[in-house]
Amino acid sequence: MKDLQELVRPNILALKPYSSARDEYKGIEASVFLDANENPYNNPNNRYPDPLQNELKALIAPIKGVREEQIFLGNGSDEGIDLVYRIFCRPGTDNVVAIDPTYGMYQVCADINDVEYRKVKLDEHFQFRAADLLAAADEQTKLMFLCSPNNPTGNDLSHEEILTLLRQFQGIVIVDEAYADFSEAPSFLSRLDEFPNLIVLQTFSKAWGCAAIRLGMAFASPEIIGLMNKIKYPYNVNRLTQQEAIHMLYKHPQVLQWIKSLQEERTRMMEEFRKLPCCQTIFPTDANFFLTRVTDANAIYNYLVHQGIIVRNRTHVSLCHDCLRITIGTRPENNALLEALREYKA
Ligand SMILES: *Cc1c(COP(=O)(O)O)cnc(C)c1O
What we know:
Blueprint: H1 4-7, H2 10-14, H3 21-24, H4 54-64, E1 71-74, H5 77-88, E2 95-100, H6 105-112, E3 116-121, H7 130-136, E4 141-147, H8 159-168, E5 172-176, E6 198-203, E7 216-219, H9 222-231, H10 239-250, H11 252-274, E8 279-282, E9 289-294, H12 297-306, E10 312-313, E11 323-327, H13 331-342
Parallel strand pairs: 2-3, 2-4, 4-5, 5-6
Antiparallel strand pairs: 1-7, 6-7, 8-9, 9-11, 10-11
Helix pairs in contact: 4-10, 5-6, 7-8
This protein binds pyridoxal-5'-phosphate (PLP).
């Protein structure tokens, strides 16, 4: 990769960040805090939260096998995605390259930040070749977005092709592993020390069952994490979220149980879908959802809505005509979907 200094927007390199009261006094041994204009009543919500979420990071680091200075925490993964655009991409000048189809937020953030978004279509197995992404890049390409397992297709991307990109691309490679807990493929977290241009995104929203608390994780070199901390809002993760996440980390064995049950239900659902007359293709998946091509996605989507069952209609997404994306639910929820589809008459 190029020098980090060369990739980062000059105004961000030069930025002097806001310094909060909690940045300037970090100790905990003091007992009288009269520095942050907080209300002395209504403990504990009267106090600003830890801006760097140190207690939480200390619990996440051993579970993920990384060092605390390789972790950034934000208001969902979406905060991490937005921050990397604002760190690296000069509006109106720089561009990014991404696979297509994939998670919609990469493009939305590009559009918000006035950054050109270059899409490279996946092949019929929903795989990509590093050479095709590299061919779409130029001097102004700062970022490449990969999502593995990919949303909405469900499959892991080729490990070898991702490695080739990490070796050959001069900019930053973002590997979004929102669904990695459901996959057997190894995470790219173990390669952070090897690739200074790698950013791995994970989230509490899926396997951890915490979409409501809005907590996303980014893992990268301490230099990149330092830049993310420099430009984030000072108290970007509120105290209630930090506390709930700490509680969930102590329940890690329970989370592993959920993952196992969802994987088992996924296998069962795909076997049952194969028998449905309205189901034409089921695409292989490594996530907590699967993509299926049906006889008429719009009609079946509307039929299910009338039964009070909502799936995701992906028919207008590239390579996904007549496809529905089905999230794995509880056994009774999954059975309700199967029952409804067995009764569907075209
Ligand atoms: C669900 C999802 C996320 C999670 O986003 P949060 O903001 O953390 O809820 C990230 N990436 C992909 C590809 C997703 O599907």
